[in-house]
Structures are given as C-alpha cells and as structure tokens.
Design brief:
This protein has about 140 residues and is mainly alpha-helical. Helices cover about 70% and strands about 5% of the residues. It is globular.
Length: about 140
Amino acid sequence: MNDLKTITILFRAKNALDEQIKIQTERFGLNPTEFAALEVLYHKGSLTPNVISAKVLIAHSSMSYVIQRLVEKGLIERTISADDKRSVQLSLSSSGRTLMDRVYPDHVATLRSILDRLNPEDERKLQELLKIIGQPT
C-alpha cells in the first residue's frame, strides 16, 4: 500500500473519540484536558505538574493554565512539597473527588460502548497494532 488511507482512518477514529469525550466532559463544565488531568489525579493520587503534563501529553505551559483553572474551580489543591520547597504537589480536592466519583463511571461506560463494537480478540489486536505505530522510529 502506498497511499495514506490508514492514517486518514486513524485520524477520523481519533476525532470521533475526541468529540465523544468533549461532549461528555462539557456536561460537567470541563474541557477534555481538564478532565484528563483530573483523571490522572483520580487514579494516581498526588503528583507534580510535570508528571501530570507527561501523562496527559500536553505542553507544560498549557498544563499551567489547566491547573490554574482547576484550582479556581475548587477541584484540585496545591501543596508545597515538604522535601523541596520549590516543588508543588497537586491532588484532588474533596469536591474534585466527589465529581470524579460521579462522572468517571459514565465516562468509562461511554468509551466502552464504542470499544465494545469490537470483539475482545479484535480489541486486543488493535491494541497491539497501535502500540507498534506508537513506538518511536
């Protein structure tokens, strides 16, 4: 194959997923990046902004803006590291945890409804293939 049809299909699938996530997160007054940051903290606990940025796959400068918005919304809290006063740890506030406890199961159900169009073997195969494509060249 010499054309880029596979890339076009992959991008369309990504855009469809992005749109579903955007629709879902906006119902809760969040954008997808804010939700992604909350999701990382929900599963991993207290983290530094750099770690969150790496896991969410956005630039550090953009992450600073996202963090500020989530602090202003009362969904995350900043604490200064006891070991290094220059380091900040971020964690979900009680409001943030309550929100994620409420919305995360719906988020999983929405995304699973999309993935469940595949049988388990096809989903496993898709994971393997996407890992190959995602490896650095």
